[in-house]
Amino acid sequence: MIKFNSFFPVIWTQNFEETIGFYTHILKFSLVDANSGMQWAFLEKNNVRIMISKPNKHEKFDKIGFSGSFYFNVNDVNDLWQDLKTITRICYKIETFEWGIREFAIYDNNGYILQFGQPVTEISKEK
Questions:
Q1: Tens of pLDDT, residues 79-103
Q2: Which superfamily does CATH assign the domain made up of 7-56 to?
Q3: What is the CATH number of domain 69-127?
Q4: How far apart are CA 115 and CA 87, in angstroms?
Q5: Which of 56, 61, 74, 114 has the most beta carbons within 10 angstroms of its beta carbon?
């Protein structure tokens, strides 16, 4: 049986350096590798990996085209909300949903929606 080992999104941007700055300075990802000439970068934080790339000539890119969001399961959503709520553009404020997840969402510098959530049962265990 085929096993999927990881999911590694590639975020397209026309603002290469600015996007690297957002993910490294605001979200505290580490820049693992980059090629400014080819306009790609590999970033990592804990078990999460992201690639930043300027689309090449074979890829049509005139605006943000992703029709969803990137969802991050985190271990302390309340503290992360405190860290990000005044330094990012908010999509929706932190709240606890009826399905047992506490989450919020922001926009990155390109307009991609980044959601951050944690099961309420995990929050209760921390206290």
A1: 999 999 999 999 999 999 999 999 9
A2: 2,3-Dihydroxybiphenyl 1,2-Dioxygenase, domain 1 (3.10.180.10)
A3: 3.10.180.10
A4: 15
A5: 114
**Chain-centre distance for alpha carbon 77:** 14
pTM of structure: 0.89
- pLDDT per position as a tens digit, 19-47: 999 999 999 999 999 999 999 999 999 99
Burial degree of 120 (CB within 10 A; 0-12, 13-18, 19+): middle
Element (H, E) at 53: strand 48-53
As annotated, the residues of the chain forming the CATH 3.10.180.10 domain(s) are 7-56, 69-127
From the list 21, 28, 126, 11, the residue with the least C-alpha distance to 77 is 126
